[in-house]
Design a protein that fits this description.
alpha/beta; 21% helix; single chain; 6-stranded parallel β-sheet
């Protein structure tokens, strides 16, 4: 179902899934030539998100094959359109989940482009010219400059890549719920994976007391010793859950497996807030009593707008926040996908697209 338009004459090497087996294979395809609003980017690294796995296997029934995944992209600018003067050749940049939006609605004009009802994603979307978008599992990407961010000079390009999805996904609800600029709150992070480990780092950097909530007792040493969490609650331990009742101001739920929010809500203080950013394939259980008797709120959140993404990236530069990653070569993508499906990674795979000789 590959779809290209007349100006798609730039030959690119990449890696794509061609059917619901999800197997990723080398793939040569065409991208559009650099337009007036575009920057062309040599891709150095691209993170592997769980979303990539779902699209590769058509788990959601919306994949347009061949699909070139990847929306955690870092690289250097090699060409600049005449309207994209905020960037120059050689700039260190990143591309996340967004490729296009209407630019005119209330969300676009307030830099919440991620909530535009015409949003198109970096891959498996339909760009303004009618072509299907292809992601960062490729050596070059052409992006509209309005959906590109700068990478701080002090941050390594491999471990910064997952911030463009995992990072902004947890940063946005923290900002929206008053967790920036108001240190000293009691914050819970449910789930210690690709999203959760970044949330812990943000929480500590922003001056909060951070408690990790997990079904895995074995993760306590990692949470406290390596990531700096202050507390740890095993959610299957009734005594620990009872001791933690009404102790937290805010909980960020990053778990993507089906679970009940009832017991977790009991950990919140009166008027506390839980924000869910995981995407279970079955509905969450949400009992009414923990909401009613605690005057608590449950909210959802999805990635972030471009201004917010740049703000997050700049704060990561100030606090030296990156993701814990395992760097792989393109020929081991399928192996990494298999491990990702089993959650056998701490905490994010990143593909070395350009080869380690990039030294960036």
């Amino acid at each position: 179902m590959a779809q290209e338009t007349q100006n798609h004459t730039l030959t690119v090497s990449g890696w794509a899934a061609h059917d619901s087996s999800g197997e990723i294979k080398p793939y040569t395809f065409k991208r559009r030539e650099n337009g007036v609003n575009d920057v062309t980017i040599k891709v150095l690294y691209c993170g592997i998100c769980h979303t990539d796995l779902h699209y590769a296997k058509n788990d959601w029934g919306i994949t347009m094959y061949p699909v070139v995944p990847g929306h955690e992209i870092t690289g250097v600018v090699i060409k600049v359109g005449c309207n994209a003067g905020k960037f120059k050749i050689g700039d260190r940049v990143g591309v996340g989940c967004l490729a296009a939006s209407c630019l005119e609605c209330e969300f676009c004009t307030s830099s919440q482009e991620n909530y535009c009802d015409q949003i198109q994603f970096t891959y498996n979307g339909i760009f303004w010219d009618g072509s299907i978008t292809y992601g960062g599992y490729s050596n070059v990407i052409v992006a509209d400059y309005r959906y590109v961010v700068r990478i701080p000079e002090n941050l390594p390009m491999d471990s910064v890549a997952p911030l463009l999805c995992a990072g902004i996904t947890v940063f946005s609800p923290l900002k929206d719920n008053g967790m920036l600029g108001s240190p000293g709150k009691k914050m819970g992070v449910m789930g210690l994976g690709g999203l959760g480990h970044v949330a812990v780092k943000f929480g500590k950097a922003f001056g909060h007391h951070v408690t990790v909530i997990s079904t895995s007792p074995s993760k306590e040493a990692e949470a406290k010793g390596r990531l700096g969490a202050d507390g740890f609650i095993v959610s299957t331990d009734s005594q620990q859950m009872q001791a933690g009742k009404r102790t937290l101001d805010f909980i960020l739920d990053t778990v993507s497996a089906q679970h009940s929010l009832g017991p977790i809500l009991e950990l919140l203080k009166v008027e506390g807030t839980l924000v869910t950013v995981g995407a279970p394939d079955r509905p969450l259980e949400l009992p009414s009593f923990p909401l009613i008797f605690g005057k608590r709120s449950v909210k959802g959140s999805m990635t972030g707008g471009m201004r917010e993404t740049q703000e997050m990236m700049d704060l990561c530069g100030e606090h030296n926040i990156t993701c814990d990653v395992e760097v792989i070569t393109p020929d081991t993508i399928n192996e990494a996908m298999d491990r990702l499906a089993k959650n056998a990674v701490r905490y994010r795979f990143v593909i070395d697209i350009a080869g380690r000789m990039s030294n960036l």
